[in-house]
Amino acid sequence: QVRLVVSGGGRVQSGGSLRLSCVASGFTFSRFTMNWYRQTPGKELELVAGITWPGGRINYAESVKGRFLVSRDNSMNTLYLQMNSLRPEDTDVYYCNARQGPMNEYNYWGQGTQVTVSS
Fold first, then answer.
1. CA 52, 58, 60, 64 torsion-angle sign
2. Is-contact 73 82, C-beta < 8 A?
3. Is the pLDDT of residue 103 over 90?
4. DSSP 8-state code for residue 37
């Protein structure tokens, strides 16, 4: 059974930091592209950061470059998102995503975690 369990959300003041974790099971984590998305109700899903497989290329949304750091530990089947210098506009529900295949035939989602940044 595929599972992506997300933790680490919460409330923080502007300028603070949080680290999200996504623990995967039920599939070969090291052979999947892993992403963090976020969404505000009523708005489109936004890709925040990701690490591709194969290749290990790291991508960030322009809005988080220089503030967020995505990483993965394949030995622990875990994806991380270190979020620094948080801003109120980073307030969102954050989701972990795993995908593989030329047409993303394998596309898994974790539960969302709320991140709230107060000014």
1. positive
2. no
3. no
4. E
